[in-house]
Known about the structure:
This protein is an alpha/beta fold. It has helices spanning 22-31, 48-59, 85-90, 97-105, 124-132, 163-173, 189-200, 232-244, 260-268, 306-313, 333-338, 369-380, 392-395, 401-406, 415-423, and strands spanning 4-6, 13-17, 39-42, 63-67, 70-74, 107-111, 136-140, 143-147, 155-157, 179-183, 204-206, 212-216, 225-227, 248-252, 272-276, 279-283, 292-294, 319-323, 343-347, 350-354, 359-360, 363-365, 382-383, 386-389, 412-414. The strands form seven sheets. It has a four-stranded mixed sheet.
Amino acid sequence: MSTIHIGGYRRLCGQIPIQGSKNGVLPMMAASVLSRDTTVLTNVPAIQDVFCMMGILKFMGCRCTLAGGELTISPADMNRTDLPEEQVRRMRSSIVLLGAMLGRFGEASTSYPGGCSIGKRPIDFHLNALRALGAEVQAEDCRILARATALKGAELTFPYPSVGATENALLAAVLAEGTTVIRGAAREPEIRELCLFLQAMGGKVEGGGTDTIVVEGQRSLHGCRFFVDGDRIVAGTYLIAAMAGRGEVELSGVNPGQLSAVLRTLEETGAQIISTENGVALKMKGRPKAISVETGPYPGFPTDLQSPLMALMCLASGDSLIRETVFEGRYETAAELCRLGARIRLTEGGALVRGVPFLTGGAAAARDLRGGAALVAAGLAAEGETTISDCFHIERGYEDICRDLRKAGADIRWLERDAKENEN
């Protein structure tokens, strides 16, 4: 069990460097198998999802090492096309290996992917895109088997801008014969970075970051060295945590242009924000203002920050309405926040949050990655001690949330981890 203990409210004040992007590096790791050459990714976060993807790649014959933020992947000796069920069920991002394996080997088999339990999250868009590119895909008995004698370019139109489906289509199309046009593509910064990564490998990809991406299939790709952008969701989490504690923080290593919707929303709630070329500075005085927010695909407000924002709105002066349009299960965090004194009522229109002057420390459990981060933000603003259990979810995406927040003065620690360090 992973447990976080928070000693109580302290005003956060300090500088925090931001780790590399989880949602950016995982599809790049999958894309690295498209070539036999060695690829080196830098600014890679030491998080559980990265370790899990490394385990999957090693299972299939890749050599992978991560040291000092530098990840080296050597796929020349890959000798199997079946993905290990245990790791796949732990991480949803593993599904993008389907497109990469089809592109290089013409076949792949896997179980249905896992990750956080935050809704239905169907993979129909992924499988239909691969079928449109010429793959034969069978999905039954919780297994997926995909084969293709030769992938061929096609025109794809997604009815919804799915990030994962866009990634899978890109990885399958980059080695396909002919041209692939992806309409209704996801526009997230991580998609743009994946397109730049594929270009660095020798792929011809245009339109990353727009809703139409054009891929000219190549005969082969080569290895490369590539820097992973800072994690915009981690940055948003720490900004919200600082606001909850009426603090002042400076974040470095993140592109504020990728946080436009988030920064606008936080300014609307009362934060003073200054953006720099490579970071963001925030100052918060007084209680946040109540607002209404609806999540949506980029460039809208990110679903990954809905739970932390809900924690912030628990302290707002007035009533807030938060409407989740991407993953309906994100509302599960509301019940845990109520354990700390929040007043939240779930309605057909969304989560109605009635702000209170302060939260009260207590015991809560992380139900998913971002929900766990939301509880940390709430605990930092609560009167009294807070204990958050099941924080292995948090470790999937945050390299060391306690270490980072202590840099800004938070009284926060890992119970088991710190106890072991003291023993040694």
